[in-house]
Design a protein that fits this description.
The protein has about 170 residues and is an alpha/beta fold. The chain contains seven helices and five strands; from the N terminus they run H-H-E-H-E-H-H-H-E-E-H-E.
Length: about 170
C-alpha cells in the first residue's frame, strides 16, 4: 500500500507524530488495511474496545526494573503459563530454569537485548503512574527482556496511558 501510494516506509517505521498530514495518511492506510469504513466507529478502537483516542502516547525508556513490572494481557494462556501472576518475569524464570528446544528463539532474542541489538519496541498500556504495566503487543519480546534480567540494555517502548485502561478486559 505504501508503494502503491508513493509513500516512504518511514511513514510507519519512523513516524513523525507532529506531522498532521502524515498522521492522516497513516490513519487512511490503517482504515483501508483493517477494513474500516470512514464512518465506522471501530476506527475509535484498537483492541477489545480500547478507545485509543482517549490515550496519551509516549515513547519511554524501560530498564530491567520496569521489565519486572510487565504483565501479560489477561488471556487464559498467559494466566496459565504464569501461574496466575501474569508477570513476564514468572515465565522468563521458568524458561531460564528449564530451557527446552522451543526456547531457542527466546534465548536468541534475550541475547539481542543483552547486546543492545536493535529489536522492535513493545507496546504497553497503563492507567496512570505507578499502576500495572500491561503488554499490549510484544509478549515474546517482553519475555526475552525478562530473561535478560539485569543484563538487559535500556530500551524504548511505546506507552499508552489513560484511566479508561483499568476498565478494559485485558488489563
Amino acid at each position: 500500500m505504501l508503494r502503491r501510494d508513493g509513500l516512504p516506509a518511514t511513514l510507519v517505521t519512523d513516524p513523525d507524530l507532529t506531522d498532521e498530514q502524515a498522521n492522516a495518511a497513516r490513519l487512511r492506510l490503517l482504515r483501508e488495511y483493517r477494513g474500516f469504513d470512514q464512518a465506522d466507529t471501530c476506527v475509535e478502537t484498537y483492541i477489545g474496545g480500547l478507545p485509543v483516542r482517549n490515550l496519551a502516547w509516549w515513547r519511554v525508556s524501560i530498564n530491567a526494573a520496569d521489565v519486572a513490572r510487565l504483565h501479560y494481557i489477561n488471556w487464559d494462556y498467559w494466566v496459565a503459563v504464569t501461574g496466575g501472576t501474569r508477570l513476564a518475569t514468572t515465565l522468563a524464570s521458568a524458561k531460564v530454569a528449564e530451557p527446552d528446544e522451543a526456547d531457542a528463539f527466546d534465548t536468541n532474542l534475550r541475547d539481542a537485548f543483552v547486546a543492545g541489538a536493535p529489536v522492535p519496541e513493545i507496546i504497553l498500556v497503563d492507567s496512570g503512574p505507578d499502576t500495572r504495566l500491561v503488554i499490549l503487543e510484544g509478549h515474546v519480546r517482553a519475555t526475552a527482556m525478562a530473561m535478560a534480567g539485569d543484563n538487559m540494555k535500556e530500551r524504548t517502548a511505546l506507552l499508552g496511558r489513560s484511566k479508561v485502561v483499568a476498565d478494559q478486559w485485558f488489563y
